[in-house]
Amino acid sequence: MTHTxxxxxxxxxxxxxxxxxxxxxxxxxxxxxxxVNNLNNLIVGTKFENADLETIIKEADGGIFNNGAQVWNHxxxxxxxxxxxxxxxxxxxxxxxxxxxxSFEQFKEKFTSAAAxxxxxxxxxxxxxxxxxxxxxxxxxxxxxxxxxxxxxxxCDVWEHAYYLDYQNRRPDYLKGFWDIIDWKVIEERxx
Length: 192
Ligand code: MN
Fold this sequence. Notes:
Helices cover 49% and strands 11% of the residues.
């Protein structure tokens, strides 16, 4: 199958000032697109030629894993954003957050700390574990928690290409803006 770059459910300028139009144009239009193109080239003639992304994440290695996981990770990241987000979790998701982290504010602090302290390139994740509880995890490079049997709800891209045009080396400032554009309605849907 041929993998394609999904169109975003908002315009490039819609997430400003948290993320600029220029960053979206490069991050989605160039980086995300490049992972799609690389994946389509790499799978030709392999057992992953007709595999979906989740199968690739669970079973592939090397370039096919790296590019397939990056396609999935970026789609998951971009689709959690909205210019008019629901600003906080409610219902079952809020209950799980309170049970695991004490409060939404304490969850945000812990997740921000995981994203800020991740060395080098990678992703911070909120996942549901096998016991149905929430966990915050870190993955380097293209890492994806599906490979470990965890179910992702939210991710933050901390590769420098996600923020360097807007914030240069100031990853903590990028993380502050990140919370302003997360649509918790989307995350609640992912929990269902
Ligand atoms: Mn990225």
